[in-house]
């Protein structure tokens, strides 16, 4: 993921590098201030305020021609987001998002772990099967959908090598019964982080969940919103428990990392129709998981080795205390207007419905598109099949020196190797992890003085 708004890049930046905007303190005390008027007996004032607000909104909608999102943005801004900051933020983001093609800063990356090619060749001939290795461009097939997939076949054929959607492991998850009403009634006042896209500009916001849900069905191809919050479920263990383990994820070597630097592993993703992720590789090049609870996602997943076609900006960092390099492309594979920017790419496609979970191997750039309002949770895996790739990314991040490892490191089992690495993380990095987590929680969830 992104990772999205990451645990450690503070609440001001999401996994996709989007700046988040902080709202002022009095929002925390409950219902947004506009709503407080409704219980009041000052009916005349209420009507006046409502009339003025309605006229203001109507004029703004007319001017911007962004029917839905504009209402949303104005609503959010009325609720104390500092307008100046929003504008600055938008300008900064549009500079990042626009005009990057032909930029001499954009060069080919070499993010692949050395042994990834051999990994792929072990993948049961998947490349040959899909003729992805030939001259063919564009879509070279669909991601396999499997049920009753044995652990052995998962490990041999897919895990760490090739994407797969498993369709029969989520029916026992309590989360499959989650609804918008349930979240609105029980958690409506809790704040979430989300991205808006309008006028080709992405901006980040932190808003009460209720506000996001009230606008869930309002979007267009050029204006959408995407709740991407990796802290929310972790902060609500009773919800986190509704997301069960699958047999494929049982070996979890991330658990060997000290909690201060262990990535959060259950991100809430809730997008309006047309919302989408960036085109990216996940942090530490881990294996990503994404489980759809309701709605429908489309995916494009790129076999490794196409970085030179992806306009990936070099030098980007995840911003985690245990640093890593960030691989984000500025291409939007779901934007019809950008089609002639990626005619050379080869990719697999996938359609993912409720109750289906996708596994995305290391090294595969991927982008998801929510066709309709879609609720999902994402996570990650480090196991025997990819730990060496993840460790490689940790070393590349620079917070830990390879030379600090014992001589017999290469002979260690996966568990021993990850534990040896974890034991060498400096006190400073650990303290930084604790500090940033506390800061992020404080700023997102606690009332400000
Ligand atoms: O569902 C999505 O938006 C994609 C999320 C994703 O790619 C990720 O978490 O790495």
From TrEMBL:
Annotated JmjC domain ranges read 225-398
Identify one Gene Ontology CC term for this UniProt entry. nucleus
InterPro entries (alphabetical) = Cupin_8, JmjC_dom, JMJD6_ArgDemeth/LysHydrox
For whether the record's keyword set contains Transmembrane helix, the answer is yes
Ordered alphabetically, the record's keywords are:
Membrane, Transmembrane, Transmembrane helix
List membrane-spanning regions: 44-63
* Pfam family of the protein (one): Cupin_8
What SUPFAM superfamilies does UniProt report for this protein, alphabetically?
Clavaminate synthase-like
Question: Annotated Gene Ontology MF terms?
Answer: cis-regulatory region sequence-specific DNA binding
The name on file for this protein is Bifunctional arginine demethylase and lysyl-hydroxylase JMJD6-like
- Source organism of this protein record: Elysia marginata
